[in-house]
Amino acid sequence: MNKKKADKFRSILESIRTELLGDVEKSNQNVRASETEQMADISDDAARTYNRQLEGEIGNQEWQRLKQVDLAIKKIEEGEYGICSQCEEPIPEARLQVVPFTEFCTQCLSEMEKNPKATDLNDEETFEEA
Ligand SMILES: [Zn+2]
Predict the structure, then answer these.
(1) Rounded to the nearest whole angstrom, what is the distance from the C-alpha of residue 112 to the centroid of ligand 1?
(2) C-alpha of residue 96 to centroid of ligand 1, in Å
(3) What SS3 state is found at 48?
(4) What is the C-alpha separation between 58 and 28, in angstroms, rounded?
């Protein structure tokens, strides 16, 4: 991929990143707002548990996406953007335009979906509760 194209994808990725960071902030504000509303109806402990779960869910989803976006930006910096992490073949640009933060080509992704346990690419331990 030439530098001009890589720069274009980089600016797309950076705007996704900004949006995601904004969403995370918004989500946290919503959680705080609903926490205050619900405090009147349910006990403190129940409210705390509920909100911790909610916050965790939102956090994981956004965090996963952010991680992918960050990785893609890092790959652009290293000149490796658009290369599938699994088979190391170039990812078609049409796919990058739809999912600019994708790490894998369509073929590898469908292989992984067919055999979710055959790959150790999902490092989920990062997201387990401490
Ligand atoms: Zn691949």
Answers:
(1) 10
(2) 13
(3) helix
(4) 9
> Which residues have a Cβ under 8 Å from the Cβ of 106 and sit 6 or more positions away?
91, 92, 95
* CA 85 / ligand 1 centre spacing (Å): 7
Binning pLDDT at 50, 70 and 90, where does residue 116 land? Answer: confident
Report the predicted TM-score, pTM, of the whole model to 2 decimal places.
Answer: 0.64
**34-91 per-position pLDDT tens digit:** 666 655 555 666 666 656 555 555 577 788 899 999 999 999 999 999 999 999 999 9
Distance in Å from the first CA to the final CA of the chain: 41
Distance 56 CA to ligand 1 centre (A): 31
The answer to whether 66 touches 20, Cβ cutoff 8 Å, is: yes
Q: Is 81 helix (H, G, I), strand (E, B) or coil?
A: coil
Mean pLDDT of 84-113: 94
Residue 120 has pLDDT above 70, yes or no: no
C-alpha of residue 12 to centroid of ligand 1, in Å:
22
Cα 86 to middle of ligand 1, angstroms: 5
Domains located in the chain, CATH noted: 3-119 (1.20.120.910)
